[in-house]
Amino acid sequence: MSDSNNLVRGTFLLTIATFATKLLGMLYLIPFYSIMGGEENLALYGYAYTPYTIMLSIAAAGVPGAVSKYISKYNALGAYATSQKLYRSSLIVMMGSGIIAFIALFIAAPYIADLQMLAAGEGAHRWSAEDVTRIIRVVSVAVIVVPFMATWRGIFQGFESFGPTSVSAVIEQAVRIVFLLAGAYLVLNVWGGSVQRANEVAVFAAFVGVLGSMLTLSYFWRKRKKHIDEMIATDDTDYDFSYREMYAEIIRYGIPFIIVSISIPLTLFIDQLTHNNGLALGGVPEEYHDAWFGMLNLTTHKLVMIPTAFASAFAITILPFITKNYQKGNMEGVHQQIKMMVLMLLFFVIPAALGMMVLSAPLYTSFYEFNEMGIKILLFYAPVSIAISLFTITCSVVQGIDKQNLTLYVVLIMLVIKAAINIPLIIQFGTVGAVMGTGIALSIGALINFIIIKRYGRFYFRPLLKPLIQIVVYSLAMLLVVELIYYALIFNLEVDHKVDSLLIMAIAVPAGGIVYMLLSFRSGLADEILGSRADKIRKKLKVL
């Protein structure tokens, strides 16, 4: 199978899996929101997850992505034994790293909690530093096993095998959600426990989900091991790297992966440290602080991360292919893959983001309940998904063309900008200001990445111009149709009622999707972006 077909197939598998996990991660909030009783009670969940995510990225030390790149590189050279030597030792190293990171996060939990409470400002808070300490310590248990599991996925990806990552990710999310919802419900409604304890059970679900993922990966490993052993047997190269040499290269690859992987969590952590203080300085009563923070970092964030699922899948998929072609000096292949990925990403993300904007009211009400502030935050957050997606995939491309050291500076610039403008924007615009800060910082980061790609990858952006204009025009046409349907429906339906909002979504979303797909397939845009798959889709759906 050609690289192009492998790339499209891998992207398709990971996109479906990532979209499924993101969708599950959004849908579970409907019953979880109801069980927990509102945004304020969910804020504690958010206080735990951001430091957990950051520590997780540090614990993995960028090794999963680096292992994927390393294996892809040496497999391209036929040095399969070198790849084997690396991945065997990396799994052991990652288990040790997870244990050390767990101990570090467990010990640091009270200091992190104090920092968050200090950032929240003076006064009576819904949650104390002790509450936050306890929940961080509960979720820290998952740090023990996640780096090992993520590295295992990286090994499969290095061999251009994306099925195991896809299936294990869906199973991990499904197991986590079942445990989370069942545990929280039992604690609150059967055992008469506290909201604090329900939140603790909910975050512990991360550990249970990883166990499900690892069982899935072990099944795939047993199936694929024979094929991998056969590849290793064909290795007639004379590469013989010491562990010191291998891990020097892994560290060189890994540090930029750490920086990129924690970039989005760090923007959320900056919000966590500045949000409540910014609101206080802006004169917002303290009673709204935790609820609005819950909307920012959890409810609206979960919705916005659905379109960015495409970016996550594309970033994982494209790295081994660009690395392989770059190492072989096949710059034409590199350019084709960059063009394909950027256009495919924008083909899905732009219409999704615009649709979320115009349907922000029924969308938020459908998943949670009608809340003017939540809807307002979502309205501004939806287009930020485009910036998040572009930043994610351009970082992956920069790493693929072996300029991963530059991503360190790009992320630092992005975070400095975010930190500098966040409080002034929050003072001026409230919680929406934090969303604006994220959008501005990530857009600048993506722009710098594009400059790096142009300079060092010798990539020309002119071929992107025509299809990009088409994507924007067709998205606006879709948006017009959705708006007309939406405004026609609200004459007879109440957007502040959950059932009515679900009905609006059920009519408007498919209608908008049909218009966009018709325009894309009839104009040939879909063929340019999806290649031969577009014709297969057209034959199955004869209306296209």
Question: How much beta, percentage-wise?
Answer: under 5%
Q: Structural class given helices, strands, pairing?
A: mainly alpha
Average pLDDT, all residues: 81
Treating each run of at least 4 consecutive H or I residues as one helix, how many helices? 23
What is the CA-atom radius of gyration, in angstroms? 23 Å
Order of helices and strands: HHHHHHHHHHHHHHHHHHHHHHH
For the record, give the distance between the C-alpha atoms at the N and C termini, rounded to a whole number. 28 Å
**Extended strand count:** 0
What overall form do the CA principal axes indicate? globular
> Main β-sheet, in a few words?
none
Low-confidence stretches: none
Helical content stands at: over 70%
Outline the structure in words.
The protein has helices at 3-27, 29-36, 39-60, 63-76, 80-119, 129-139, 146-158, 163-190, 195-233, 243-261, 263-281, 289-304, 309-327, 331-358, 360-367, 372-381, 384-400, 404-429, 431-456, 462-489, 498-523, 525-530, 532-540. By secondary structure, it is an all-alpha fold. α3 packs across α12 (289-304) and α17 packs parallel to α19. The model has no long low-confidence stretch (mean pLDDT 81). The radius of gyration is 23 Å and the shape is globular. The longest helix has 40 residues, at 80-119. It starts with a helix and ends with a helix. Its main location: membrane.
